[in-house]
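[step 3/7] fold_predict: job queued, chain A
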Amino acid sequence: MQVFSSISLEHSFLKLRDFSENNGLPVGKVNIATAFIFTDAVHVFKASEVTAMLEQEGEVGFSAKLETNKEATTRTFQALDVLDDIYLVNMMPGYDDDDLYADIYTSKVRIKREDPGDSSGKLYTVAGVSDSFVHVPSFSSLVGDDCPGGETVGVQFLESTFNPFEYSNNSRIIESDVTGLTLKCGNSTISVSGQSQPIDILTRRENKSMDRWIDIFSSTARLGDISIFLVNAKRNMSSLRFSLDFDSTLFPHDVTVWLRKHEPPTPDTHDWTTTLPVPDDELFTVPWINGTSLTSSAYQWLLPEDQIAISDADVDANNNTDYFIGIRFGSEVHHTSDEIVNFTLYAFETACVYFEENQTHLWQSEGCRVGPMSNITHIHCQCDHLTKFAGFVPPNPLNIQEALSVNILENPIGLILVLTVFASYLLGIIWARKADRKDLAKAGVGLLPGHKLNPRQDCQYVITVYTGFRGNAGTTAEVTLVLYGSQCESPPLTLRDDNRCLFEQGSVDSFLVSSEEPLGVLTHMRVWHNNAGFSPSWYLSQIVVTNTGTNVTTYFLSNRWLAVDEDDGRIERLIPTAGEDEMTKFRNLFLAKSTRDVNDGHLWFSVAGRPARSPFTRVQRLSCCLTLLYSTMLTNIMFFGRGDDFEPPEPLRVAGVEIDSPISLPQLMIGIQSAVIILPVNLIIVFLFRNSGTLKTKKSDDKKSNSELGRRVLKLLHRRPRHKQNFISNNPDTPSYWYSRDRPVTYDNEKDHKLRVLQFSLNIDIKDCHKKNDQYEDDVGRGQKSTLPWWFVLIGWLLVWSASFVAAFFTVLYTLSFGKAKAEAWVFTFVTSFVTDLFLVQPVKLVLVAIIFALLTKKPVEDEDPPPRTAADDEDYLISNEK
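[step 4/7] structure written:
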C-alpha cells in the first residue's frame, strides 16, 4: 500500500509539473495541489517509519516489509525532487517570491532560488519555532562548475522530527531530528562533496535521547581543590563533551580540567588537559537570523573521537571505558580560601552521521565530525558534503552481561548450532580413529609372500605404488610388474600382502623386493594385473622405485587406467622412466599439485584423503577443523551485517567503461581482521601437530642385552625349513624358488609377518647387523622431519580445546544478544555460505592454484611425508614368540 501511494504521489507531482510549465496553471491552484501532495508524502514517510519500527523491534535485519518501506521512502523522496522542479524551474522565473515554505506538524520543507555566482555564506532554516539550520560558507563553492550557465539553481532544505529512513539496518540508533539540504540545477540534483570549508549543520536531539548517554554531577568544591569524577564512555567512535554550569560572574577564575583513562588524573599525570573559559577569539560563531549570531559556550570542552581513540583493550566486561575527570576552580594559590563553588558537570557522548540514499541506504560517518556547539539539546555537525544528516551513538557489538541474562530457551538457535557441530565432531572422531589405525598398516613396507630377500642392499628396491583418487580407482586384482635396467631385468614381482588391503582409492603402498643381481640404471617397467575380483579396474597414478643401496629414486608416471572398461581397454602398460622434462609437464604438475593439495594441504578434504605416512593424523586434522569452524563462526557473527555499513567503492574507469568493484576497502578490512583473528591460533595448532615427534619407548643401554637381542633376532632370521624341498613355480611369471612344489610358501601367523618386516627394518646383512640397523634408524629419524619434541603435541591439543571453547562460548553470547529473529537469520546465512564455500568455492580455488602452479613452476612436486616405515617392529613380541 505504501509503495502504491508513493508511486501515485510521484505521478501526481509529474502531472502537476507538466501543467505548471510556462505558467499554464494558476499559482493558487498549484499551491493548493502542492500542499495536498506534500501532506500525503509526509504521511507515507510516517507510515513507513511506524511499520519499520515494528519490524526492528523484533530484531529483524531484513524482511519483505522493510524492503517495501525502503522502496516507498525512496520513491517519495523522488517525488519531492519533482516538487523542486515545479517551483524552481516552472514557477519562479515569473514568480514574485523566490523563497517558499511548506509546513506540516512533523516535517518542513523550504525551496529557495539562488545565484550560482554568489560567494557569500548562506544560512538555511525553516519557518516556525525550529532552530535547526544548515550554514554554507560560500554558495558558489557548492555549485562549482557542475551547473551550466542559464540553468535555474536553487536548494531544498528539509527538516523532519522523525526518521523517514527507519527501514535502514542501523537507524535504531538515530536520536535526533533529520535535516537535509539538496542542491538543484534545473531538473538535476548536484552532488556536493569534498568541500574545503566545512558545512555546519545544527539539529535538535530527540526528547530524552540523552538519558542513557549523559552523566550529570552536581557538586561543590572549594577554590583550589581538585574534584574527581568517574565518567563511563559507553560507545567507541563517539566524541566526548564536557560542560560546566556555575556562576562565572561570582567566580571568574580560570577552571583547569584534566582527563585520564582508567586512573584519576593529577596536575602532573594525565592524558588530556585544558583551561576554561575558552578565549573569546577561539569561540565558534555562526550567523543567525535578524543579524544575530550563535556562539559556542566558553565553558565547554570537546574531545573528538579520533583523539580519545577507544581501543578494545580499553573496554571492560560491561563494554564501558572508564575516564576520570579532574576539575579545579582557581589555582593552588586559592587553596587556603574558604570560598565554595556550586557547579554542575555534564559529560556526554555524541557522533554525527549522514544517510547514503543511493546505494547502501545506511547511516555513515565519513566526512563528518562533531562541532563545538553540540550540547545536551542539539547536535552540531561539520561535514564536507551535503545529504540528510543526524546524530547517533554507535551501536555496541556485544553486551556480555545482558547476553548472559537472556533466557536461552527463548533463543536456543546458537547453542543448537554449537552443540550440533560438536556432536558431529564426536562421531567423526570415532571414524577418524579407526581410519588412523588402518593407516598404520598401510604406512609400512611389506615383503612379498614367499619372496627371498637378497641381503645385498644394491639389489634391494623399495617400490611405492600410488593409486589415483578418481572414482573406483582402486582394484581387487593382483598387480605384477617387472623392472628393466641397463644391466638386467627383475623377475616378475607380484605385489601382495596378506595382512593389509592394497591398491585402494588414493592409497600409497610400499614393498621391499630384491633381484639376484643389480639392475643398473632403471629404464622402464612393465606393469599389469590379472583382472580378478569384483572391481578389477585400476587407475595408476605413479610408481616410485628407490634403490636402498645407492639411494637413487626413479619415477614412473602413468596417470592412466588399467582396465578393460576404461581408457583404451588395456590392463598392461609399459612405462618409461620419467625425467625432469616429463615430470614438469603441465598435465603431470597439475595432477600432482591438485592431488597433493586436496589430500594433504587442504585441512577439510585431507580428513578423508590423508596420506597414510603423514604424521598429521585424521583425528588431529578433524580437531583442527573443529577449531577453525568455531573460529569462523565467531568472526562471522562479530561482523555480521557490518560490511553493509560502508559506502561501496568508486567504480573503476577503464577506456571509458565503468566497472563496479566487487569489494570495498572496509569490507576488505573486515576480511583482514577476520583472518587476523582466525589464522594465528589455527596455523600454530597445525604446525604443532605436523612437526611434533612421537613418544618413543625407552631402550635399554645394557650392551649385553642388546647383543643378546641381536643374536636371537639373527637366529630367527636364519631359521630354515625343517625339510629341504625343491622349489618350482605354479605361476609361469614367478621364479622357481618363490613357491613350494606342493603349496605356496605363505606366512599364516603374525610372527612370520613381523619377521619379514623386521628383516627390512634392521637393514642388515648377515655379518654386520648392528651397524646396518643403527644406520637405518638414523635415516628414518631424519625422514620424519620432526623439529619439535613429542610433548609439543600436548600444547596443540590444549590450544584446540581452549580456542574451540572460547569461540563457541562467544558465538552463543552473540546469538543471545541478537535476538531470536536475527540469530536465526545469521545461522541460516552462515550455514549456507559455509556449505557453498566448502563444496563449491574451495574446489575451484584448489583447481586454480594447481593451474597457476603448473603454469609458473617448473619444479616437480615433492613428497613431504616421511619415508615408508615398518608396520610392525615389536621386538618384545618377536622374542616372546620365538619360543
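[step 5/7] annotate
The mean pLDDT is 76.
The two ends are 95 Å apart (CA to CA).
exit 0
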